[in-house]
Amino acid sequence: MTGPVRSAPPLPDYDAEAEEYDASRGGAPRAGAAAEAVLRLLPAGTGTLLDLGCGTGIVTARLARPGLRVLGADASRGMAVRARHRGVPVALADAARLPLGPGSVDAVCAVWLLHLLRERGQARAVVAEAARVLRLGGVLVTTVDKDSAHDVGSDIDAVFAAHLTPTPADASGEVEAHAVRAGLRPAGEALFTGHGQGRTPRGAAAALLAGRYASRIVPRGITARELAARLELLPGQDVPRAEPTYRLRSFVRV
Q1: CB–CB of 210/10 below 8 Å?
Q2: pTM (predicted TM-score)
Q3: How many CB atoms lie within 10 A of CB 92?
Q4: For 141, which of 16, 109, 114, 207 could close a Cys bridge (C-beta 3.0–4.6 Å)?
């Protein structure tokens, strides 16, 4: 019999995590793959790109190309400082309330952002705000189904299976519905590898307790500590399981 649903750990404090964030999330190889995939979905002639939830700027800095002006926005001061150290112009701003006028950019990207927006209406508001600042014919490029990309059929996934969030904020169908309501239409998609993100049991247990899976996993009838203990019983504690394949979708402003 399933017991009561218990609260998941809170989302990480990104100000506190800023210094070590890149190393814990796959570093340059993963960021480079993400940037290349975003660029594949940008129309020819894109002159300005806003990276929402740009974090430390590790992806943002890799998006810059001759003729393409790249800007960042993030709500975490610690993350914004790191991005500025990389030479990325960053606005300290909520992704749902951007300090930009209507139709002011050619493209907006949101890489690993929407899955974090767990409060009702947040993801829809961010997609609507992205649509507002896009010019006609501009595109929104965003990751979808981010957390479920880590479900690669491993023994770690089997431990987590009964505790997955039933309605992730970045579910592809939900994001598409938000986009259509905001005057965007589906345009394309791309896949890329999450280099360095193959989970280990030990790493998954630590990430669970640190709140890094809070957008995907809500322990049911068990505490987070008890769920982590199950991971600690798995073989190959430091052996990475398969790397995830992330999915990007693009939507054009019409």
Answers
A1: no
A2: 0.88
A3: 14
A4: 109
